[in-house]
Amino acid sequence: MQFHDVRVHRSDEDLARTDQLAWKIAECAADPVEVSAEVTEMIINRVIDNAAVAAASLTRRPVVAARSQALAHPRSFNGVGATVFGEQRSRRVSPEWAAWANGVAVRELDYHDTFLAAEYSHPGDNIPPVLAVAQHLAVTRGLTGRDLVRGIATGYEVQIDLVRAISLHAHKIDHVAHLGPSAAAGIGTLLGLDTETIFQAIGQALHTTTATRQSRKGEISSWKAYAPAFAGKMAVESVDRAMRGETSPTPIYEGEDGVIAWLLDGPEASYQVALPGRGEAKRAILDSYTKEHSAEYQAQALIDLARKLYREHPELADPANITRIVIHTSHHTHNVIGSGANDPQKYDPSATRETLDHSIPYIFTVALQDGSWHHVDSYRPERASRADTIALWNKVTTEEDVEWTRRYHSLDPAEKAFGGRVEIELANGKRIVDELAVADAHPLGAQPFGRAEYIDKFRTLAAGVLEEGEILRFLDAAERLPDLAADDLDQLTIVARNGLLTSVPIPNGIF
Q1: I need a labelling partner for 454 at 20 to 30 A (CA). Which of 111, 230, 288, 478 fits?
Q2: C-alpha closest to that of 169 among 221, 233, 217, 113
Q3: pTM of this structure
Q4: Is 481 a domain residue?
């Protein structure tokens, strides 16, 4: 990896284009390095994972709305259009709208992959925009599954490398500000664009995706799912403009009125961003991890810990037996999904699903009482409003523990942790203390996810949504991803069972 020093420059310093972070990212994207077999296999896993969570969300209101918007924009010129999750493969829309609809479907349940470091991320959000452009231009540009693999590898690499180095949430900027540039870079790799064009696209994509984190604060709305899809859509449009010769604000990161100076650490800020050098393989996807449970990633290990406590101490399900539960965890977990966020909604039985997804007191309570976690049932209003659940829920708080914060930020994969220590004070005066560092499904967890687990997750979430033949067809195509020809890329979608999509009302809007 090559380390790049990034700081704010006054306009009269005239920072050379080739010394700008956006240029370094573009050089990385333009490098024709091959993708290793190990990375290719993980990309296949994540394509399956994305389709799994999309299948489970096809009839959910935000996804229906996004899909209806996309279907109002049939395929554009210069290509054959891109597919939309749930619809027939023959029905094509303009690629930026496919990226939008499919991005919402993937993100809605908060159930796909994650990487956490200085910033948060769900790098699987890169797949919808890169795939949409690949499908649209596959025939006219002769794109194959191998090209798609290369584009996805770049998207993961760039987003994860930015996430390692630059915190956005510390300044209340949403994490999709790293996704816009990474998706643009991934599309640039897919299309084999030159460094200059990718550079301009990255600048435009960043400039249009620097939104605030209010979408993940207070009463969390469906925009939580829409935000990454919007970033993917902006990335497609940014590449399109750059290919037409249009330019971006420059320097976008380092300028005295740029992103770092005014949205992040300020005029005196400096960062070190590591990117693969020329000829160096893009392997960052291997450092990311998927979810076994449909909840914020920092809840994954704590759900698994709650399941363990349920098996070992079933009496904990009764709030009468408990005085209080304190979860000692990292700064991030405490302040984002814990009681440190100071959001009353995190204890509100009538809160939205999106809000409960970001409430570790609620999540831990339900997992402790049920011994399981379900992507639908665990969030139902009747589940959240159970009297015994509310009583126990209000006894659960979080506290930051400096050691868990240190481990959260550790660069050593063997030490990095996302869980916490739970201390339970019982009504009889006894205490139960237990801890878990990483989720069971994590690469270092008790039951790491491999291909079989990704396929099982897909089958579980697709049950009742896709016909068995469609499940088999998609899995066959996904596992052949690097060998797919140009006219086979449309196989990388899912078609809902007959009558499923017509069973839900379609909202009306402008389009």
Answers
A1: 230
A2: 217
A3: 0.92
A4: no
326's enclosing H/E stretch is strand 322-329
* pLDDT at residue 221 is higher than 90: no
Spatial neighbors of 421 by CB under 8 A, at least 6 apart, are: 327, 328, 329, 401, 404, 433, 434, 435
The total number of structural domains that make up the chain: 2
Quick one: how far is CA 331 from the chain centroid?
Answer: 20
Angle between helices 451-462 and 37-57 (to 10 degrees): 20
CA distances to 1, 115, 116, 329, 443 from 413, in Å:
17, 12, 12, 18, 10
What mean pLDDT comes out for the span 418-429? 97
Q: Are residues 219 and 329 in the same domain?
A: no
In single-letter form, the type of residue at position 26 comes to A
Please say if the pLDDT value at position 219 is more than 90.
no
- Mean pLDDT for all residues in the chain: 96
Asked if 105 and 66 touch (Cβ cutoff 8 Å), the reply is yes
Same structural domain, 246 and 329: no
pLDDT number for residue 76: 84
Closest CA to 347 of 302, 397, 309: 397
pLDDT of residue 411: 80
Measured CA to CA, the distance from residue 77 to residue 308 in angstroms comes to: 55
Residues 277 and 166 in one domain: yes
Domain boundary among 287, 321, 354: 287
CATH number at residue 281: 1.10.4100.10
Q: Are residues 278 and 303 in the same domain?
A: no
User: What is the arithmetic mean of pLDDT over 341-357?
Assistant: 92
506, part of any domain: no
